[in-house]
Amino acid sequence: MEEIDRRIVTLLAKDGRMSFTDLARETGLSVSAVHQRVRRLEKRGVVRGYTAVIDHDAIGLPLTAFVSIKPIDPAAPDDAPDRLAHLTAIEACHSVAGDESYILKVRVASPVALEDLLQQIRAAANVSTRTTVVLSTPYEHRAPEIADHSPA
Predict the structure, then answer these.
(1) How confident is the model at residue 53 (pLDDT cuts 50, 70, 90)?
(2) Domains in the chain, please, with CATH?
(3) pTM check: above 0.85
(4) Inter-CA distances, 97 with 1, 41, 61, 132, Å
(5) What is the C-alpha to C-alpha distance for residues 38 and 113, in angstroms, rounded to an integer?
(6) Sign of dihedral through CA atoms 2, 11, 51, 134?
(7) d(Cα 117, Cα 124) in Å, to the nearest integer?
(8) Which DSSP category does 17 fall into?
(9) Three-state SS annotation for 72-102
(10) pLDDT the model gives residue 143
């Protein structure tokens, strides 16, 4: 990836609403050149979308937890993500190495809601669970450092 594209991606990762005018000012390119580069980055799948960062406390979902799941029957098909897709309290599903098969990031309103969600997860995917409740989040949604991987 070219240095200028890395700069654009870094700026967008920090502020996905940054205007083409501001991107042009920060990169030293014209607005039309920035626009073309951003569209090319989108077409290549480097920039996959733009999202709003939500204050989950403000919308009534203050409890975050990580739920590790492991199939009760190891011979069963590995279809837990499909079986759990309907549960909107699951914010993310990560396939992992180790004892568990997946780690789910969930957001709910209360401990009672978490208990209910855990029962739904177990029933829907036929898995055992291990849960870690988040006490606080010092940082999240950090922009990545984009390294130059071009040959020297």
Answers:
(1) confident
(2) 3-44 (1.10.10.10), 56-133 (3.30.70.920)
(3) no
(4) 29, 31, 29, 17
(5) 41
(6) positive
(7) 10
(8) T
(9) CCCCCCCCHHHHHCCCCCEEEEEECCCCCCE
(10) 80
